[in-house]
Each structure stands twice: as structure tokens, then as C-alpha cells.
Design goal:
heterotetramer, A mainly alpha, B mainly alpha, C mainly alpha, D mainly alpha, B: mainly alpha, two-stranded antiparallel ribbon, 70% helix, D: two-stranded antiparallel ribbon
Chain lengths: 100, 569, 175, 498
Amino acid sequence: MIPLSAYTAVSAVLFIIGLTGVLVRRNFIIVLLSVEIMMNAANINLVAFSHYLESMAGQLVALFIIAIAAGEAAVGLAIIIVVFRGKISTNVDEMNLLKW
Amino acid sequence: MGEYALLYILFAPFAGALALIFISNRQPLLVRSVAASAAFVSLLASLYLFYAYDPVKGGFQFVQKCEWSKQLGISLHLGVDGIGTPLVLASSILLFAGIFVSWHIKDRAKEFYIWLLILAAATIGVFMSLDLFFLYFFYEMSVIPMYLLLGMWGSHTKKYLEMTDSEGLKQRDSVGFILNFGSNSKEYAAMKLVLFLSAFAVAALMGILLIYKYSGLNTFDILVLREQANLMNIPVLGTTLDRIIWVLVFFGFASIAPLWPLHSWSPVGHAAAPAATSMLHAGVLMKLGHFSIIRVAFEILPETTRELMPIAAVLCMFSIVYGGFVAFYAKDTKYVIGYSSSSHMGYVFLGMAALNYISLSGAVIYMFAHAMATGMLFAMAGWVYDQTHTRDIPSLGGLSNKMPFISVCFVVGCMASIGMPGTVNFIAEIMIIVGSWDKYPLQVVVAMLGIVLTLAYLFKMMRGLFYGPMNQKYSHAHDAISAVDRLPLLIMISISIGFGIFPMRLYDVVRSGVDPLVARITRVVPVAQTHEGSGVRSELIIPGATSTVPVVASKLLPLSSQVSRGEGK
Amino acid sequence: MVGVFFTYFALISIAAGVLTVTLRHPVHCALSLLVLLMHVSGLFILLNAEFLWAVQVIVYVGAILVLYLFVLMLMNLKTDERYFHQSALYVMGPAVLGASYVLYNLLRSPFDGAKGDTPAAAVLQDGDTYAVGIKMFSDHLLQFEIVGIFLLGAVIGAIVLAKTPKQLDTERGRS
Amino acid sequence: MTFSLNLAFSDLLLLLPEIFLTCWLCVVLIVDFSFPRVPKERLAYLSVAGLIVTLGCLAWFDMNHVSGTLFGNMFVLDRMAIFFKIVILGATILVILASIEYVNRFTLFRGEYYCLVVMSALGMMFMVSANDLLSVFVSLEFATLGFYVLVSYLRDDLASNEGGLKFFILGVLAAGLLAYGISLVYGETGKLVFSDMASAQPTPGLIIGFLLIFAALGFKVGAVPFHSWIPDTYHGAPTPVTTFLSIAPKAAAFAILLRIFLVALGTFKPVWVVLLVAVSILSMTYANIVAIAQRNIKRLLAYSGIAQVGNIFIGLAAGTKMGNDAILFYLLAYLFANIGAFAVVIAVSQAIGTDEIEDYRGLGRRSPFLAFAMLLFLLSLAGVPPLAGFIGKLYIFVAAIKEGLYTLIVVGLINIVISMYYYLIVVKQMYINEPIDPSPIAISGPMKTVIYVGLAGTLVIGIYPQPFTDWVVSATLMFANFIGPSVTVAPPVHLLGG
């Protein structure tokens, strides 16, 4: 039997990887992918807790997180396309029209 | 009228301002007459107030109270005592006079009168508030109209107007112009005034909030707080709470008075302001400081006042001498009068510091007298400025030929300002000097010196303006001929001289307000008994904590106070 | 046996995560994310969550990730030369320290919340899908409905933003 | 395991405003699709009509004290929720009215704009009723989704795109943090509903979880250090959207913060007070200082909004019922002043086409009404009597001083003075400087309505706040159960150390 803490550890490591990706990478799409990693970390946690705490709520939260990630991905990619049309670039640093 | 006199005085200007919003600037006469009639209603009501106030009964009269916010313990509590009554009268006189002084304003006259009326109403509101919240409310409310009045209708100094090159213009408009202390613009003056006064008002607000919290009464009512607030002997930060509150309140309000180290906004503001605003500013607004100190510090913390008032006695010397010397060397008419006001306010502080019946009454009468005298001087400086468009004394001269009426009035104004016998200033000065001689002989000597200085700089200015060779550039200048132009000066002169010759009514009224106050402050309490008293009080806290009245006196650590958390409900 | 699978899924997930964050080419990143998602779904299987496994594979991998890849292909992105923030190095040190602190704390934490009403046996009896369905349409009905409108909003939003400007003239003509 | 849905038809009454608004949203959408020739203003009025009906329904709830919970406490309709819903709907109505003219700048999809605004409002209505972590997550993302689209609505404007992208990236980052935080809290408590968590033990997982949730909500309200998207997004977004963004999501997020801090974490008050004090001081001081350097009115108002959030956090840090009342009252005052100020910005930018503060020079001559309105709104934001903002600030300070948060009050008071400086810079441009182009500025009818409503609110609340304080006091009555003198917890110092 795998202890719960093993799942928590995996999820924490993934979460930190995702967070680092968001903070460090400059390409929008990779930033979004990193956020997906964070969401997945949350999902691992939720499903593991749901299993060990014997309640279904965790799985449902995970399900809703997936649904919402889908919707956000759609809108986010649309925004990126709009930006791409205007600037032909997807780098965070090159967004410097607005200062301070 | 009757018992609602205060409401008329306070709300007539507000109503006038509200009515003016709906009147177009294209009907200047209507605008002026609406403003004048609002001020006239206020003036009539305050004259009635002054004569209906019963000095034998004393205390707060014409009291109006209506609940304003249950949750915060605020009520619109209005009332005047012998100290407030003459100041209310002075404000409405100056408002009325100010409206006529600014009769010829062409640019956005409607807006000018709106802000002027709001400014006057706010100052009047302070003089009749019996609630700490409303005192602060009206106090802070009087600041913003000053900004607009100075900024929109004010005048620049000569140095600033010379700044016409592109760099200078850029400097004028730069965001950081407030940091540029070399600039002498009206914007700078207005911004400095507002920020300075707000910063210190906020200190006073902190004091007020501390009073509110530590009294534990959940009320801002001064009458309740002065009877029931137990603020003494609570140790905080190595001193006691009452001293901290006192210092916050005193310096917070003394900034507008203006006491010596806090005065720097005042002459700049006076100089930049249009005539009517300077009149209200120097005549009434500065008295808000003294008045609020009397209302808050004297009423609620009498014992601390007795202990700490020597601070004022020390600082007022600097006020008197420094203001006097700067006025003597200033080259700008309004600077001279502005610094003279700030110097004269030192006398009021001296009178307040001495804390006896005579000197405190003298201080209150001086406030009234100074309002009239400085109002006249500013009105005339404004007239001269309107005619010549300069405030530079060296370039003026010989105007007495062109404006005999103004120059005569100016002489009277100088006399009043100096305190010649026959004007009400004389009585006030004598009372301050006699009253504080016992306690502060050094300060009295300095004050005498200050009178000599006043004589010197006012006569110097008078000579510079009205006598000597005349600059032909100003040959088009003319006298105040029409009744409208003469009326404000005549009103102020007659009041000043009238009360100078028949001061008894004023004296009675003021005494009726000062006597109970001084009695509270100078109540002789043996030292041993004070200590015992504090001991008893700290014992009382323990049952108090369980009773319905929350007493938080001993709970000073933040976040750990169980009792105070319970109050939130 | 379960231990072996767990170790495999966990290690590959983490490795794929690291690759997603570090690889230069965005398409490679997306593909390693795909690996990560697949292995995370393996973890779901180990936790008796078959329904989520299916959702993860179908929705996450089959829809969301494909969408990402589609956009990446559409924009035909080349590898970025500078792919880290300049300030990344300054961030990394404190970040690693903070992360290890968080990890340490999380591992110390008990995570023994109140037990729910659906033990593993009850879930296995009717299957995970059944259990999720029962919960979703009773307790979490409201959230389900909200997500429904959310997806409607996402559709409208995506259309509003991404519709090509060529339509502009016809739209102007219409309104 | 059997299916059991305890939902009577009468229970749906509690959901009536949301259900109605959802239907109305579909109606607007269908009308937009089916009748493409209908002028888009009519769609705006149609949406406003639906919102007004919803508002009326909520007002009826409020007057008749309708309240209750649904779905096992996950959806609450208490008086606080009703208060926030009314605030949000009011803001939405005003924003729609203020955007009627502005919408003509959009090249495409003018009708969908109104749908998305109403949709965000709907999401925020769910937010303020959310009483569990899942609802918080779902409704928060729902509300934010609409804003992602709205912010980048000016598709050909690079600033709008950029603002939208920054907003989106930080928004999804916040969503990731929120999801992970929720998972940790769920693991530690086994619960999702706030009121069930009240007895939880403060384990590290719970603390980290709540910190993550707080960070996510901090992004939404725009508190320092989570504020970085605010100025860019406010600047880039279409101005009506900025208006909306500056009020409604903040109010909704504060509703959630109130529920989390006072219901779920009521017993840990000594721990989180430190956090809130720090956030509050940082927000006020940083935002006010940076605002001084702004040249663009939208950015100025963005920073001013961050500072206002810092002020609201003072009330949250007080953590008493009075603190909550003050927060609600402050939000009400802030609503009117901010909507009004932004309405003036919209009107001016419609006429002169810029948002630079310098171009406001001489507005007092060009349009005395707009300048006067802007003056009052800015002064209300600064906290000058007799305007609503002053009473709001005082209310918050009084609540805080009762809790002995002296540092916070001193910082708050100093910040009032700092903020007065940059507000007066705008006033200076409007009144003291002379206009370059003295032509008067025309204002459309709906815009005038919005400005009048803002003025009326600002003045009435400032001059006679009693009915409004009564309202907010009754709105937070539910918290009286959770915060009382009985709650005493020794400061768990070991928690802060992990």
C-alpha cells in the first residue's frame, strides 16, 4: 500500500515545477503549460485525498478543475492568437507597451 | 428663528451654494445677490445669536442634536458657548464682507461664490460643533475649498510670473512641482496648504480616535467625553496616553493656527489667495486651530492641558518675533499681512497658555478682534492688487491721492491691528498682557516687542503703498467709490471700533464661556490626591470590564484584548 | 506490484514535468506535458478513480493538449533564443529554498481530514463512474450547472476573440 | 449509495435571481443572434432591464429577510450575499449604461459584449453566495473568464491585447494556486464547506493551503504583492471594462475573503491578523507612492484602487463585526466614487480621445459638470468630508482602533495625505490650468445618468449615512455567531514557524 504522503510529495514536486515554469519561462504557451502542471498537481492531491479520506468530493473537485482548465485553455489560446496577430511574438518580455 | 438660530447660520451658506449650482454664470447679478442674501441670512442669524446668548446662564446654548450614526456614536450636536458665539459672529461678518469684496470677480463668479460659501459654512460648522467627529468633519471640509479658491482665483508672486521661459513653464506643470520649494506659484501655495493642513489634521484625527477608543464610551460627543472620559494616567510608550493625545491634538490643530514651526504654509497661502479668501483664511480659518484646541484639548484633557500648555507659551514667542521680523522685511503686501497674522496668532497662544480668566478671555476677544482687523487689511490689499495688479511694495507708492478712502481705511486697519485704544484689539491685547504677566513675564516682554514690530512694519507698508512718489504706471487706479465697495470696509471698521468702545457685551459673553473652562483646568488638586485618584480608578477597571460599559483602559496590547474584541458587536 | 507502478508513474510524471518546463521548443514542451498527463492518469488508476482516468485521457490529453498543439502548429513557432527570464537566476536560489521548505512542511502534515461516506469498498461495488455521477447530480448539481454556463461563456469568448478580421466587412454591413 | 437530491421546488426561490439572469442572458444572446439588424443599444437596454428585474427581486429578498442555504450549505443566500449581489448588479447596470457609447469602438461582436458583462455579473453573484471551496473555484473562474475576454475586447489595440494577456496569465496562475490550495485544505479537513472547517486544527498543510487561497484571492482584489497585473490591465482594457473590473470582482472577492477568514478561520484570528496587516500596509503605501508618478488617469485610478483595497484590508484585519460592516460600507462608497470617476474618464476620452492626465487641463472650463463630478469622486476616493469615502475610511479606522491596530491606522492616515496629493494633481489640471482647446464636451444621456447616480450616491452616503450603516450592519448579522468575545486562542507561535 502506497502511503498518502507519497502522493502528496509527487504532487508537491509537480506543483513546484509548474510554479517555477510560470515564473521562469517567457513563452506564453509554456507558461500556460506550466499552469496545467500545477492543476495536475492539485488533481493528484485531490484524488489521493479522496481515496484515503473515503469521500467522493475530492474527485469531483478534480473533475471540475479539468473542465475549467479546458475552458480557460480555449479562451487563453484565443487571446494568444489575437496577440500573435498583432505582435508576431509570444514572449512575455516583449510586452512592454505598458510600463509601471 | 429662536432656538434654530444655529441651523440658519450653518445651513444658509450651504443652501446658497446649492442654489448657485442651478444659476447660470450669465446672470452675474443674480449670482451675486443669491450669495449675498445667503450670507446676509447667516449674518442676521448670528447677530441674533450674539444678542440672544445669555451670558448669565452660560454653558452651551441653542443646542441642536440629532442622531447621525448610531453605529459610530456620532450625532450632529451643535451648540455655542461664550467662546463660539463671537467667532460665529466674526465668520458670518467676514463672509458677508467677503462677498462684497469680491463683487467684481468676473471669471467663473458662480463657482467662486459656491466655494466661498462652503468654506465659510465649514468654518462656522467647526465653531458650533459639539461632536468631535463633526468638528473634524467641518475642519477638513474647509480645506478643499481653499485649494480651489487659491488655485483658480489666486495670484502668483512676481517671481513666478517672470518664469516665462520654456523650462520655467515646464517646471510649473511638472508633477513634482510641490518638491520645488523655489516656486512661488499659486498652485504651489494651494497644494502646500492642503497637504500641510491635511497632514496635521490627520494627526489630530488620530488623537480623536484615541480619545474615542480609550474613553470606551462609543461616542464622539464632547459634552459626554469631557465628563466621563477617563483618559488620565494610562501608561503608553514610556509616557502617558493623555499626553500623547494632547500632543497629537494640539499640534494637529496648531498647524492651522499657525504656531511657529508649523506656519510655513500660511503666508504663502495668504499671499496667493484672492482677497475674500485671504480675509476668511486669516480672519477665521486660522482661529479654527485655537478654537479646536480649546474644544478638544482644553475640554476633554484639562489636567494635561495644565501640564503641557507651557509648550505653547514657549513656541508663541518664536511665532511673534519671527512673524514680525519676516513681515518687516517682506516686500509683498500680502506677505506682510500674512506674516503679521501669523505673528498675531502668537498672542492668542500666549493668552491661552497663561490659563487664567483674564488672559483666556483676552485670547478669545483677540481672535474676534484680529478677524476684523486682518479682514480689513486683506480687503484693502486686495483692492490695491485689483487696481494695480501688483503686490510688490517698492514698485507702489503715492496711492493716497488716487484712493483717499482706501488709505484712510488702511490707517484705521493698521491702528486696529496694532491695538490702538478705541479698537477692540486694544482691549484684547491688554487683557492678554495683564493676564499672563504673572505666569510668563518673558513672553509678555516679547509680546510688547511684537507690538512695536507691528507698528514698524504696518507703517512701513502704509508708507510704501499710499505715500511717497507715485509710479505713473498706476495712474489709472481709482478709489472705492460705490457703496458696494465701501460697505465691507465700513462694516468691519464699525464693528472693530464699536466693540472697542462698548466691549461689555462681548466681554460678558466671552467670560461666560471661559470661566467654567478655566475653572476646570486650574482646579487645584493636591498631588497626593491625584495619585490616590488614579489608584481608585485602576481598581474600578476590573468591575468595569464585566459591566456593560466596556472599559479598555488597561488593555493596550494589540490583538490580545478580549474585551475590545467584544465591543465590535 | 502497486508500488512498482506508483514509482514508475511518479518518476516519469516528475521527469516529464521537468522537461516541460525546461525544453526549448514549445512543441516538445507540449509533448512532454502529454507524457505527464498520461502518467498522472496512471496515478488516478492506482487510486481507484477510473472515471477521472478516462476524463484525464479524453479531455485533458485528447482535447486540451491537442488544442495547445494545434495553436502551436498554427502559429508555427520557432525555438526561442532566450528562453528564460533574465532574472531567472536570481529567482532560482530563493525559489529552491522556499520550495524545499514547503515540501518539508507538506510532508510533515498529517492530512487526516474527516472521513467521508464513501469507502473504497462502496466505490468498487458500483464503480467509480456511478459514485461520481451520484455525487455530481446531487450535492454538486449547482457547480455542475455553473460549469455548464462557464463553458458556454468560454465558447462565446473564444469566438469573439479569435474570429478572423476578414469577417469585419460583413459584420459592419450587418449592423 | 443512492441518489438523493434534497431540492424542493420552493428552494429554487433562493436561486431565483441567478436562474432568471441565466435565462435572460440566453434571451439577450438569442436576440443578438436572431436579429442582427437590431441596434446594439437596444441589447444594452434589454440587458439592463433584466438586471433591474433581478435587482428588484434581490431588494424584495432583502426587505422580506429571505435567506437560506442550499445543496448542503454550499450555496448560501444570507443578507450579506444579498448585499453584495445588489452592489454587483448595481455596478453592472451602471457599467452597461456607461459603455453604450464606447461599444461603437469595437469592430466586431458588439452584442456579445453585453452578454459577457452579464455573464461575469452572474459569475460574481455565484461567488458571493459560494460557501465552499469548490463553488469558490468554479464561480471565481466563471466570473474571471468573462473578464479575460472583455479586457482584450479591443482586438486591434495592442495595449488591450497586452493587458488581456497579462491579466490572463496571472489569472490562470491564481487559478492554479487556488486549485492547489483547495486540494491541501481538503486533505487536511476532509471538508469543502467553510462552516465545517471552523474546528480544524492548524496543521502546516492547512496553513499553506489557506495561504495559497489567500494569494489567489489577493490576485483578484489586486493587493500588493499580487497587484502586478492591475495597472497594465486597467490601462489596456476598454474603459467600461476597467470600471467593471475595478469594482465588482473586488467586491465579490472580498465576500469570499470575509467568509473564509471569519467563518472558516475565525478561530485563528491572531495568526492571520499579522498577514492582513502586512498586506494592507504594503498595498496602501506602495500604491499611493507609485500613483504619484502616473501620467495616465486609468493607471492613476488603478493604483488608487490598490490603495483602497489596502484600506479595506484594515477592516478585514480588525476581524470584528464592526470591521465587516465597515468593509461593506466602504465598498458601497467606493462603488459610487469609482464608477463615477471612470464614467467621467469614459466621457472625456470619448470627446478628446485620450486618457492622459495632462489632457484634462481646463476641463473645469470645457465641461464644468464633468469637472465638478470628477472633483467630488476623486475627493471621495481621497476621503474628504462630506463625501462617502470619508465616512467609509472613518468607519474602517474606528473598527480598527477598537481592535488596537494602531500601526495600521497611522499608516492609513498618512496614506490619506499622500493620496490627496495625486488626486489634487488631477484637480489642478482640471481647474487651475487653462484648456488648450476650449470647445465644450458633450455627454450622452446614459452617461449622464451614470454620473448623476454616482454623484447622488457619493453625496447622500456622505451626508446621511445612517440608512446605509443600518443596512450593512444588518447584512453582516450572521457573523455575530462566529466572532464574539468567547473566541480566544493563544497566539500559536509555532504555526508561524511551520
